[in-house]
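Thanks for the sequence, V.! I ran AB hydrolase-1 domain-containing protein right away. Repeating your input here for the record:
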Amino acid sequence: MPPFTELTTVEETLNHPSYPTAIFNLTPTRQGLQPVAEGRGGPFNISWEIHGNGPTKMILIMGLGSLKSAWQRQTLYFGHELGDKYSVLVMDNRGMGDSDKPIMRYSTSEMARDVLEVLEHLGWVNLSDPVRQVHVTGISLGGMISQELALLIPDSISSLNLICTAAAIENTTTFTEHYLNRIHMLLPKSLEASIRTAAGQLFPHSWLAGPDDTVLPDLIKNIPGVGPPRPKQGATVQAVPREYGRFNSRFQRFVAEEMHKRRDKERFQRAPFFLQLIAAGWHHKSPKQLKEMGDRVGRERIWVIHGTEDGMITPPHGQKLIAHVEPARGDFIEGMGHAPIVERWEWFNEVLEERMAIGEKLDGRA
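Predicted structure:
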């Protein structure tokens, strides 16, 4: 493992002048709280936002323990730079962010039904008269939820994009390595150690050490809904820089974004995180179900992507998913980690745009 502590520490990051600007200030076109799960242990509220007002409807489904702001590079691009073309729906899954956090059994199938109820509320899905108009993208746990959603509403999906996910979490290492990894996961860690472990599982070590080169809203002029950095709760306006700033490394930017989440005790809580983790661990789609998904959605509409350096969901999971789904495009990317939406955001946005254009063309809208 590289000497991340030589790159930065949590304390140094919190004191960095760019820390208040790590989360972009992107104003939604619409937002709300939708009651879901009536008769399924609810009702409870799911927080959603739509960015942009374009005719192409896309939903981005986030992964384990993350907030909808983790899509900010995609939300900025599709919902603001190209907001006249796209309407981007982001939401906090049950247990995270501004959504309710019920203490109950979570499953990917139930979380997919939460998503479906939001889509029905917005009028993006009509089960009695389905129209292929929703572009579904899910990463990690969000990719598992997307598989369940695709089986629920295959005739409403224009494109399906499964990012660094799995049909089921399996042991792909030796018994000893698997056993030691499980023990390591359960051991208590300091904040510094926890951040370093997360970074090493999500991203290639060489990438983390590189310069912070993410997109900054300040560099994009006259884009609707993109404002200057805003203060967090309890902060003074004077404490927030007027412009977005860069960090000393990509690792430090990761630490900053992660600490914005972890310091928010209302929006990120330990018990719901573990409930989401259990949902991911119990997710299972058989080869027969994956074939059915491919048949009913249409393989020409499906993109599956995985990286050889994914330390969160190991590469054999991606290979198996591609083999069983047989998507029109299956990318197994050398040297890529678990989060291309951050690590390779420019390329990812370009390919996602291409995949949605294929769906639109198949549906006669292009």
